[in-house]
């Protein structure tokens, strides 16, 4: 963690600028820190069991997330949907609190490689959230000049298509369970 921070300190300062590029009226992307851990833990808690079939990189409770938030080499980000109407909620089901609807991380190593993963809230799938997270992660990795790897199940077609929309996906190894160890290569240079 300290070696990573020492090597990448200057480039890490570019990340807030990258995150700002993805801010819209509908969403913003924020880095995981101790203040927003409850929001992320809440997203994980409301996912159905099958949402974790292809995604098991770490613990999902607040205590596990707190440990990750302190690790300078674990770059974690959340797509947050702001409150729809913070003054008056006409619909009782309408949220008046911000809500995490997507999560992605880059477990990074000081020698220039990272492993990344994603999860989109079950109620927000097929809305382009995963593609946006892929774009943002690819841009961050490009700016940090890191080789990026991950695993994708052949059975998780949506995730594979989302990754391929943004990256050249090179299969390095296929596992008997259908998982593929892949390298994400940017389709174009994202960082000046």
Spell out the key features of this protein.
alpha+beta; seven-stranded mixed β-sheet; 6 helices
In sequence order, what are the helices and strands, one letter per element?
HHEHHEEEHEHEE
| Average pLDDT, all residues | 84
Helix content range? 25-40%
End-to-end Cα distance, whole Å, is 26 Å
> Beta-strand percentage?
25-35%
Structural class: alpha+beta
Number of strands: 7
* Widest beta sheet: strand line-up: 1-2-3-4-5-7-6
Shape: globular
Number of helices: 6
Low-confidence stretches: none
Give a quick account of the main beta sheet: strands, pairing sense, barrel closure: 7 strands, mixed
Spatial extent as radius of gyration: 17 Å
Present the secondary structure layout.
Layout (H helix, E strand, L loop, with lengths): L1 H11 L2 H7 L6 E4 L5 H9 L16 H9 L3 E8 L17 E11 L3 E8 L8 H16 L2 E7 L3 H10 E8 L4 E8 L6
Task: Tell me what you see in this structure.
- The chain has about 190 residues and is an alpha+beta fold.
- Helix content is about 30%, strand content about 30%.
- It is built from six helices and seven strands; from the N terminus they run H-H-E-H-H-E-E-E-H-E-H-E-E.
- A seven-stranded mixed β-sheet has the order 1-2-3-4-5-7-6, with helices on both faces.
- Helix 3 crosses helix 4 and helix 5 crosses helix 6.
- The protein is globular.
- The mean pLDDT is about 85.
Concise synopsis of the structure shown:
The chain is an alpha+beta fold and 192 residues long. 32% of the residues lie in helices and 28% in strands.
